[in-house]
Write a sequence for this structure.
């Protein structure tokens, strides 16, 4: 059984429209919210609208497994989509910020959050 604690993920940068529906499916499967940690899971319709606006899309999960969005982050890296993830500290886990800019390695740093 994994530990669950708050995490947020921001998706931005170039977004190929051909990936949008698959990306939305992955986000819905993760159960993330578009509003904040206490909001219900995002719907496909709300996600389409958020991505249509073209700005950075922020997602939240109050109980992310190990403070990560495993399937979503893997999808974003596979398709070279930019993201930042912030995870709170929880017991023996340090708060961290993770960056990916569409190429190279995913970078993780300790954070003062949490």
């Amino acid at each position: 059984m994994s530990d669950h604690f708050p995490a947020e993920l921001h998706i931005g940068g170039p977004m190929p429209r051909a990936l949008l529906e698959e990306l939305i499916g992955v986000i819905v499967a993760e159960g993330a919210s578009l509003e904040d940690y206490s909001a219900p899971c995002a719907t496909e319709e709300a996600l389409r609208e958020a991505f249509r606006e073209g700005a950075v899309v922020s997602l939240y999960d109050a109980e992310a497994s190990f403070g990560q969005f495993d399937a979503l982050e893997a999808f974003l890296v596979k398709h070279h989509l930019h993201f930042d993830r912030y995870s709170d500290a929880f017991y023996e886990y340090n708060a961290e910020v993770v960056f990916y800019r569409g190429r190279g390695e995913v970078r993780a740093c300790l954070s003062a959050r949490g």
Remarks:
- The helical segments are 20-30, 44-52, 70-78.
- Residues 20-30 form the longest helix (11 residues).
